[in-house]
Amino acid sequence: MAWLYPEHRSITFLAIKMLEPEQRSQLDALWSEARHGHEGRLCAQMGDSSNGPIPGCIDYAAWPAIAGDHSCSAQEMLRDVLVAPWVPKVAAIGGTLEVKLAAARRRDQRVNAVRHSNIDLLRADPAYVARAMSNNAHFLLARPNTAIDPEAYLSLVLGPGAELNAAGTYTFYHERALGAAARIAEGHLSPEARTEVALAAFADEAYALHFLQDGFAAGHVVGNWGTTAVRKGTHDYYNEHGVEVTTWNGARFVTLGDAFLDPESKKRVATAVRDSLAQLANALDGKLKIQPNNSETIQPDTFNTCQETHFPSAVIDKEAVEALVPVVAETPIPALGDVPGQLPRFRSEFGPFVGISAAAFSQGMNGGFGASQSGASGTAGLEASGRVGVGLEGVLDESGDGLIFAGVGYRQDGPAQGETTVPGRGALTLRVRAPFWLIPGDMVIATPLLALTSPKKLKTMAVQAANGGLIPWQTGIATPIGRFQFVLGREAGISWYKLDTHNPMQLPTPGVAPLDSTLVSVRSIQVDFPILEYRPFRSFYRSQTSSALIQFYAGFDRPTETSVVSPVNAPTPNLRTIGLAGIRVAFDWRYYLK
To answer: What count of Cα atoms within 13 Å lies in the side-chain half-sphere of residue 449?
Structure first.
């Protein structure tokens, strides 16, 4: 994705207001015809300023927001706009997000607003995840060199075998909208046919405008090449921090990206959208010479930007390219591709990794192993481990946590303080972490079953799990001082303490001569479950990440084997399971393999 729903709509809304009165009048008249039979669903105005955060109708300004991110073709978009029950819900979610973004004064407030919106969109739009993962069409195709001009660039992005890209998708659909408008200009259409052609023209144009707008977002200007992790990391970095761009017609400015639309960028994008709509209006009255669509029936185009990877051959003729150059000239010149002079690339925490972790912990216990050792006790220690895993963090936004890993290591506990008599001891450790959809471990069971029977369902579940689960109470919450997250059920640590006869513990055992105590060695298993996690900082570069984190956990230490050291032949005492709770401060380092 580039701009968010409310950003797409506000850009189009401003563009409609910027139209010349004559052009606005032509489009308003055609909009009135297109609404025939859909008056209850479509707003009377193309840009309805009376629509609040929960709109009562869908205006044309919202169509480009629904295109691309919530549909895969103009035909699908039009169908959903007119009848899909989830579209008004998406519009309401977008309206709520617009209010929250306008009120946000800190980065964490913006992050949390986007987090809530994405969770709601996952519920409202069943195919939202699949479209978000199929997004090459939303990015500008990187330039191969510095000598290319707008006309040559259009020929490149629409040439034989060209990969899907934002400029090409805009041109493809805009040319079809103009062809439908030119057909209307010719006349000889019945009122019913005119309504159908008007809907097709508006649908194709709205779908085109989505990708025209995307071409201004910083993360979509800098190029979409490299591994998935590098593409996403580069996209996210430049969308937030911005990049200086120059348009094909020589204007220079700094643009940002999704959730960071600023007034200057909004006006520049809206100007290009206005000029595209102006071409549509000019085609309606014959001022723009374009080949009309003379098909017997004219419907919105079905070219699927979610499934296709390349444009069909002979997409657009040279004459049409020349007509579209003025609009394309207002867009940013895309960055260079994988050649000398390219912009720096970044990566997200996505993909397989190896890593190490070091931690210090302190925990309280409700006594010791002895049946009568019920007084409060505590201990502290250190641990270190090596890990392998897969990073799936931030699939939709940075609040997500799809981290999966397994790590083995060693821990050393100090002697317990308080009533317990547990000595200092060491243990082998295993720590595992994985997100879950509804209950802990469900993704482990679901993955092999759904991978073959329903991959789309598995992808949706995986993204929901990474973003807090079906009931999203485990989504990360951003604050000015770091990120908090409830993680109960996502992670567990197991420690195996050996039976060490050289380091026994004294347990009170009334009636055992001579001291009413027994010296024993105990083998036990301690299990801990982190409940709340806090990350005060994180740093990341091209292939590695490091972070500090603080975890609050609870668990138990269960004895599994006992050996009496003295007195000789004394009976084995009855032992009990210790309950515990503690805090763990860890440093985590990962190296991503690709």
So the answer is: 7
